[in-house]
Amino acid sequence: KAGVTQTPRYLIKTRGQQVTLSCSPISGHRSVSWYQQTPGQGLQFLFEYFSETQRNKGNFPGRFSGRQFSNSRSEMNVSTLELGDSALYLCASSDPGLTYEQYFGPGTRLTVT
Amino acid sequence: QQPVQSPQAVILREGEDAVINCSSSKALYSVHWYRQKHGEAPVFLMILLKGGEQKGHDKISASFNEKKQQSSLYLTASQLSYSGTYFCGTEEMGKLIFGQGTTLQVKP
Fold it and tell me: Chain B residue closest to A42 (CA)?
């Protein structure tokens, strides 16, 4: 099976702009979770989508949003970018029906200038 | 609340053993362990469910003590390929909350 794919891999944006990141899960996986990884804060949970519904949400401001499509692909949007949003954004897919094992994608490196 | 990992970093020689600890102030029902190599995505190692069962594969094993609200990851006879950052994760209301990570460096 193909692994989790994320696009784009690298992105440079300016403060105030918005950005959309995309994640394609492993075929058959219906759950997609998003994480923000920074050197100072580590891996922080953003949200989880399952069958097109947001099932869980982390402690991030409303500028961070996401959605999931019927084919389980997910997008994450960050509006009004701030310098502190610079991070590696990882998505992970899993099939809750089997195990809680999460398969991570390579991530999108976002730099806000 | 984020689980606490210790130590923050450890340097080993090939063949030496290491233990990474993960503790939580909240009741634990499961503990997940992941390893992330530099520049790569985290990779699942194992999950331990409530019951104190010890799991492992190859020379990496882990224990889970729900009474003490902690888990330990044991790396035996470490290899160069074990280098990376190890994260434990605990489930909280359906969310996977990761510790801050333990960086392991194995030298020849």
Answer: B100
Give the tokens for residue A70: 């019927």
**H or E segment and range at residue B3:** none
Q: Which residue of chain A is at minimal alpha-carbon distance from B46? A: A101
Do B42 and A58 make contact, defined as CB atoms within 8 angstroms? no
Split at pLDDT 50, 70, 90, the class of B4 is very high
Reply yes or no on whether the pLDDT at B42 is more than 70.
Answer: yes
A-chain residues near B95 (CB < 8 A): 45, 48, 56, 58
A59-73 b/e with 16+ CB inside 10 Å = b?
ebeeebbbebeeebb
